[in-house]
Design a protein that fits this description.
- The protein is α/β, with parallel strands linked by helices.
- The protein contains 8 helices and 9 strands.
- Helix 1 links the parallel strand 2 and strand 3.
- The chain is globular, with a radius of gyration of 17 Å.
Length: about 270
């Protein structure tokens, strides 16, 4: 069931924007930039320890925003912590090995190319906080990057269900159709008529609600897109993918999605 969230749902009028890019520059690959100033640590809401695995455009910009919001962020990539010095200096995040990113974390963001998910270290979530939540931002691009994944194409698994099987933990799917630059440049306060909405899918209601609250803190509304088996509604080339609009438009786009995988995203 699709639902709306936010203290002032009547004001959810979205920003008009290009929903897709024909040059195959995908939303999560849009480059970094500077965002608005944030509240200091300890202001509204409690701070959390957050681990981010993947320091590309989405991972990097989430690191920038979440540290600015006062959260304690550990960030990792495939090249090792020594390659993250500039991001650490800019944000105050702690660069770590991927195997250490989830230590003590209440939220873990997995934001790596889908083809690299099976190569994540074993024991990835060892030492994470009790009840930790995993956010999956991934997309399947078989022709441009990931190669053909039979379980997705032949068995009909959603991309995030496949990711769950690889990492051995339930996920909440979010940010997969978000332009990385928007994380920095388009946050708006609750009730702002230009506030964007993001779809969020997951099977665990409490985990999904936790992610939705974090996204609200980042300055975006959310729409409940159902469970992980429903998350095909927000996969690449669906109406909501890359959509820069508010709650009403995102809800409508999710409802209009087709379960048939688009030809351009088949291996």
């Amino acid at each position: 069931m699709l639902t709306r969230t936010g203290p002032n749902p009547g004001a959810d009028r979205g920003i008009t924007g290009a929903p897709r890019r024909v040059d195959r520059t995908y939303p999560e690959e849009a480059g970094p930039g500077r965002g608005p100033s944030e509240r200091p640590a300890g202001a509204e809401g409690s701070t959390m320890k957050i681990g981010i695995i993947g320091a590309g455009n989405i991972g990097g910009n989430l690191t920038r925003r979440l540290t600015a919001l006062g959260h304690e962020v550990s960030v990792a990539n495939s090249r090792g912590p020594e390659s993250l010095g500039a991001l650490a200096e800019e944000t105050g995040a702690t660069p770590v090995a991927a195997s250490e990113a989830a230590r003590g974390a209440e939220v873990v963001v997995v934001t790596v190319p889908l083809k690299n998910v099976p190569d994540l270290p074993s024991g990835l979530f060892d030492g994470a906080a009790d009840g930790f939540v995993v956010i999956d931002t991934g997309n399947y691009y078989p022709r441009e990057r990931d190669g053909r994944i039979a379980a997705i194409e032949d068995e009909g698994l959603t991309e995030s269900r496949w990711t769950e099987r690889q990492i051995g933990h339930a996920v909440v799917k979010a940010f997969n159709g978000t332009y990385a630059q928007d994380i920095l440049e388009r946050p708006r306060p609750a009730g702002d008529p230009e506030r964007l909405a993001l779809p969020v899918a997951g099977d665990d209601a409490a985990a999904k609600e936790r992610v939705r609250r974090l996204i609200d803190e980042l300055g975006f509304d959310t729409v409940d897109a159902g469970g992980i088996d429903d998350s095909w509604r927000q996969q690449p080339d669906t109406p909501v993918y890359g959509l820069r609009e508010g709650v009403d438009a995102v809800t409508k786009a999710l409802a209009e999605a087709s379960p048939e995988r688009p030809e351009g995203f088949r291996g």
